[in-house]
Amino acid sequence: xxxxxxxxTSIVDVFSEYASxxxxxxxxxxxxxMEKEVQxxxxxxxICSGDGDNIPWKLDRNLDRxxxxxxxxxxxxxxxxxxxxxxxxxxxHRGLDPHFKACSGFMK
Amino acid sequence: xxxxxxxxTSIVDVFSEYASxxxxxxxxxxxxxMEKEVQxxxxxxxICSGDGDNIPWKLDRNLDRxxxxxxxxxxxxxxxxxxxxxxxxxxxHRGLDPHFKACSGFMK
Lengths: 108, 108
Prior knowledge:
homodimer, globular
């Protein structure tokens, strides 16, 4: 399967596995998912609330203390941006791609 | 590597591979990516403009005729929602999870 499609279906499958039948992640389900499905502390920190015990209010747009699929995808985007920024900075730092500098402004 | 993290890093890697040095996808790069990295016609239709030759204006928020990473991630979310909705409907249809009905309202 093509890589982008495989990544997308994998993200949906992970959500479906951990979200209970109401198609939302409560805080226990989110905690279990993040423990098992994300290893990088840096990415975890983007999603998990300070005490790691609550649903991060930044993602819980409707404040129902659960994450629906749309809110979950906002979290995926947040983690992807974090990883992308790190990857871009590494390339800049190693001078792998000098004209890559144009990217540094992307995170505005 | 944990599945969610692997999917996220794969998405970033695909973007970085196809985006030229200005960290944006022009229409040729997007077209090449979608041809190779997404097989499902249904998912492709969500991202590719009608004639498949232009950057879909719905994603090109700043109308610069290119997709930066943030705009690209909006496209990934659109495809993920499409796949999620299909997967949820299949489960409903097969009665696999009768109380899954609660999900059908998610796409509001």
